[in-house]
Amino acid sequence: MSKNSFSYVGKKIPKIDALDKVTGTASYGHDIKLPGMLYCKIKRSSYPHAKILNIDTSKAEKLPGVRAVITGRDVKSMNIGFMQDHPILKTDKVRSYRDEIAAVAAISEDIAEEAINLIDVDYEPLPGVFDPIKAMEPDAPLIHEKAKGNLLKFKYKFQVGDIEKAFSESPHIVEGEYQTQFVTHCCLEPCFALASFDPKGNLTFYSTTQIPYLMQNHFSSVLGIPGEKIRIIQPVIGGAFGSKLDTYPYEYITIILAQKTSKPVRITFTREEEFQCSPTRQPSIITMKTACDENGKLTARKFSAILDNGAYTSWGATTPHIMLIGISSLYKVPNIFFEAQSVYTNNPYSGAFRGYGNPQATFANEQQMDELAEKIGIDPIEFRLINANEPNSITPQGFKITTCDLEKCITTAAKRIDFHKNKEPFEGVGIASMMHVGGGGRVYRSDGCGVIAKLDDFGRLTLITGASEIGSGSDTGIAIIAAETLGIPVDSITVINNDTDICPWDVGIHASRTTFIAGNATLKACNEIKDKLREIASKVLECDVNELIFKNGNISSKLEPSKSIAMGKVLRKVHFKSGGEVLTASAFYDPPNEMQSPEMIGNVSATYTFGTHAVRVKIDPETGKIKIKKFVAVHEVGRIINRLGLEGQVEGAIAQGLGFALSENVHLKEGKMINTSFLDYKLFMAKDIPEDVELHFIEVPDPEGPYGAKGIGEAGLIPTAAAVANAVKDALGIRFKELPITPEKVLTALKNKA
Amino acid sequence: MKITINLEVNGDVHELFIEAHLSLLDVLRDKLGLTGTNRGCNQGDCGACTVIFNGKAVNSCLLLAADADGGEVITIEGLAKNGKLHPIQQTFVDEGAVQCGYCTPGMILQSYSFLEENPVPTEEQVKEAIEGNLCRCTGYKKIVDAILKAAEIIRNKP
Lengths: 754, 158
What we know:
The structure holds 2 protein chains of 2 kinds.
Chain A (H helix, E strand, L loop, with lengths): L17 H6 L14 E7 L5 E7 L1 H5 L3 E6 L7 E2 L5 E2 L5 E2 L5 E7 L2 H9 L2 E6 L6 H4 L15 E10 L2 H7 L2 E9 L11 E6 L5 E5 L4 H12 L6 E4 L15 H13 L3 E4 L2 H7 L6 E9 L5 E13 L9 H10 L5 E10 L13 H19 L3 H8 L5 E2 L5 E2 L4 H11 L10 E11 L11 E7 L5 E5 L8 H13 L6 E4 L17 H28 L6 E4 L2 E4 L6 E3 H9 L7 E7 L18 E12 L6 E11 L6 H20 L5 E2 L2 E2 L18 E7 L21 H13 L10 H11 L1
Parallel strand pairs in A: 1-14, 12-13, 16-17, 22-23, 29-32
Antiparallel strand pairs in A: 1-7, 2-6, 2-8, 3-7, 4-5, 9-17, 10-15, 11-12, 11-14, 15-16, 18-19, 20-28, 21-22, 21-27, 24-25, 25-26, 28-29, 30-31
Chain B lengths: L1 E8 L2 E8 L4 H8 L18 E4 L2 E4 L11 E4 L12 H8 L9 H14 L5 H7 L11 H15 L3
Parallel strand pairs in B: 1-5
Antiparallel strand pairs in B: 1-2, 3-4, 3-5
């Protein structure tokens, strides 16, 4: 179907909940008040590493208004996280400043705050270790006693071909070490949780989680509450970006307090607490070596990463899975060696953050491409085109690339940035490409999503799905797909996506999967309804099923347009009689992808997305400030479904990517974050928008995607930092291999160069 | 210690008996149930709590309710009139300037105040005007577009 004939797909359709948000009627977690609700505060560690000798909660318990105080000794030992190394409440030692030692439920936030200040903890400080390299040494302080040393038990390894032979035979080789820093999500809405039990012991947990159904599982297995007694309700979510893909101590704490007090218990983080305690992006220390032959064809790529795991294990430790995507499969490379090792330290632990390791790995990977191009004396654009992936190919990691227009992404980006145009002094251009999953990612046994579609008497379609909305527009994406399929206005569609009691299962909002997977489930369900409608309408209108067109909420005959019936009227005819039926359909879409083998081989996604960023920078040699004069992002998206949403996602991702590249940094002093305010943590701001931003979307419909669409939620920040670093190198002749590239670093480097 | 204050909020007059240390943000959200104004940092750094106080955009988390006594407040709930959106609200919807929406009320009120004083702004002036309003979702581009579009609509109103 040519895109010009779409009514809704690809058009600028406002986000379906935008009206609620611009009028202040949207209800966030922080807005919810339940009768008798208590407020929770958490007592956290005063040391990065210490034995807990004693916890005295007696004064807190006596404070009027306090309803419960809990410590690790009140709850049987409960560990969370996929490594089960993370106690909800710490009993004998603390391993980081985040550590939860006690928690209070009180009738007001102020009283809860006062109560935790009345809790006395006696510590015996232990030496801490804040550098993963130092933590690997045999005499480093031991973070987890039961472990032998600070190396995490599992190690990632992938290899294909003969790496050493390939290097020995390659005439051109570059090597380098690259480091990426701790950054944090900075969701505008601080963390929140609200736990409430009914008299039957059913838990309703209000949460901004990205994994409502997995969360039910986590709570059930850790707390012993039967899964069928757990209901997760998501209020409107004020940003997530991956931070809500695990479950965290504060969530379990509110549930335990709600059980103890038989009252609803709510926690909201202060902004300072949010900075200190919300999981960060996984920092990385990367060593890379890349080689090519005399014609510029890549021959070998070696990647080794040491990852600061922090004190406990969350999803940061699994980022190597996704780091490997670009290392194994971005550009064609026959010989690859990849390894990654996580190391415990007394630093904060990391979680999932948009891109999930790919931005870190691409920062190294795409700089190596430039370095190698320079070494061999080939133009960086030409060098990338020589090695560009092609459609209908299989990569060394077993990824089945179907659609792929990387070549066009590179050439378009190069053209739009005027890559070969003369530059002013201190001006430079840089380019970097990316590859990511675009059709889901089978990291759990299921990658599926359920959708129930229900049409009513008035032509209103309700889509009921477990695919949550975190601000990225998945609600609108599936509404547009449904609108296009059934020919009804988007305004006639309601999306219900926030209640595990009502909505069918979805694995979670991650891996840029939702438009693709929830979209396909929506398509399936709507097509089923459409088939039923065709049957009924053909009888009512007395014409052939193949004559029928669905447009503007009506079903009409294309041969005799006067033969027409409104959607709702069809439904009334179907059910408003004896022996009637209603029009609902349900679908569960689980994409044709596979889990990877222990050797990390397997087609983990149903399709892959490619893109290229190009940036023109101008550096002020007096201040070291890097100004982005022009930013070009070219992404192949299969098919644009939600145009406004797509642009918004890429623009927002670019802003996060530029922050990652230039200014964001969690400053840790012996494990404690010291810049815990927006004043000191430098986010990208309105005045930082590049003078000129161009977005280009290449549409080559994907065979599996709904209307040909691929996922795009993360792509927009994966190559950003690498493109900036390459541009800065071009401008100054200095390559920055450590993020962020701050004015201070630029000035120091310029001084050293002089 | 509790005090009595008077506030006119969105045209409604209130007499409130409140703890003296509460901020205007606390009073709006917790005493008046106007939860449209969001708390992003409580430190005056993010702008999510922006309201119009006596005609000027302020971070309501930094204003003591006691100091707001006798004043007039407009919150996001009071911007639309008789069910009709203010042009800024409309352009935010139409231009795709809303994603998670947490910064949106503050962003809209900041823009409202700015456009009252600068009806013909340049793009640079708009970016400067919303400097104190953080957004983590949109990258600001569509927000700036929405504000410029709203300025045009307001200018062309008969």
